[in-house]
Write a sequence for this structure.
């Protein structure tokens, strides 16, 4: 069995690692991670390997490797992190996870807001409409943005739908010397060029109009599709089930 430890790096640098994490890293022979994570261990005596965008190459390297290995990730590796990909492609018994504080957790502490009732949305590599669908269906959301689906782009989509009634916080470069927390609203997001590393928090304050955004009536037809393509039309699908007093015998 391989020894692969997937350890989360918190926003506070090396001092944010637990004693257990530091002990495992100290015994490792191969240290893998992003450049920012590897830079936390300049005196690591073993081999260092930078993880790029091709995670398939990472998995192949891990499959061929029999040394004690640590994979450094950001925050909690199983929260929108590399952990999910590794579990899909490597035996679970080869992996041990040691989480750290995630950027989302840290962001909520900075704005002094409970986060147990929030939903979490990653816009990385996903369409912006799907991300906004989830945001506007909830009262509190934490959004991990990317270079295309920026806070301003998300705000523009929300405004187009008439769903701008949210307070907003952009939490940038958390834990670094460039850390910045900006409090605004959805319209204010249009004027802010956010740093690439950010968490966007949105909390509903009032119900906006939503004019022009018409929900589908009933259950979509494809939900009723059968092998023979016999379906109940969605205009009928929304009707309530008849009560016993109305049922026929």
């Amino acid at each position: 069995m391989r020894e692969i430890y997937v350890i989360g790096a918190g926003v506070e640098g090396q001092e944010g690692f637990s004693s257990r994490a530091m002990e495992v890293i100290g015994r490792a022979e191969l240290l893998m991670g992003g450049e920012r994570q590897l830079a936390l261990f300049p005196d690591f005596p073993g081999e260092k390997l930078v993880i790029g965008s091709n995670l398939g190459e990472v998995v192949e390297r891990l499959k061929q490797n029999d040394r004690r290995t640590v994979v450094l990730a950001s925050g909690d590796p199983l929260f929108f992190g590399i952990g999910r990909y590794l579990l899909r492609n490597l035996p679970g018994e080869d992996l041990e996870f040691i989480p750290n504080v995630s950027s989302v957790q840290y962001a909520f502490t900075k704005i002094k807001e409970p986060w147990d009732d929030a939903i979490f949305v990653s816009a990385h590599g996903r369409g912006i409409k799907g991300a906004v669908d989830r945001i506007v269906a909830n009262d509190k959301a934490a959004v991990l943005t990317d270079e295309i689906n920026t806070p301003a782009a998300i705000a523009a989509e929300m405004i187009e739908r008439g769903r701008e009634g949210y307070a907003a916080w952009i939490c940038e470069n958390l834990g670094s010397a460039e850390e910045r927390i900006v409090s605004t609203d959805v319209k204010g997001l249009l004027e802010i060029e956010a740093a690439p590393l950010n968490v966007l928090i949105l909390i509903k304050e009032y119900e906006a109009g939503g004019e022009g955004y018409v929900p589908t009536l009933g259950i979509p037809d494809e939900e009723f599709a059968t092998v023979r393509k016999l379906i109940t039309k969605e205009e009928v699908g929304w009707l309530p089930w008849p009560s016993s007093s109305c049922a026929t015998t």
Remarks:
- The chain has two domains: 4-101, 105-204.
- The beta strands are 4-9, 30-33, 47-50, 69-74, 95-98, 119-122, 140-144, 166-172, 180-185, 198-204.
